From TrEMBL:
Organism of provenance: Streptomyces echinatus
Pfam families associated with the record: STAS_2 (PF13466)
Record Gene3D superfamilies: STAS domain
Record-given protein name: ABC-type transporter Mla MlaB component
Ranges for domain MlaB-like STAS: 9-89
Amino acid sequence: MDAKTPAVLVLPGPVRRDEVPGFCAELRALLKGGGTGVVVCDVGGLGPPGLAVVDLLARLELTARRAGGRIRLRDADPALHALLDLVGLRFQMEGQVEEREPALGVEEAVETGDAAV
């Protein structure tokens, strides 16, 4: 892994409450050993989203922020995305364009007769 490639933390499911501290410790180690300040959390294997998943992700984000980093979610189920929105948690999703950033490949249409700026 080079300095520009974020580390990946795979979260298998279903997650038990007693596993959360171990995932937080693993996240801290990945942030410490990385260089990007971002760890990608692969949530594709978590299964159906529920409050236990929301709790895990909130704790991971808090752990990352305390360590000076952030997490980004990979392979998030649309239902998980909706549940996170419902409870008011915002996560950066892998492949999702960040706010105020133009999408790649988007071109503005030019009307004939428009003055050059």
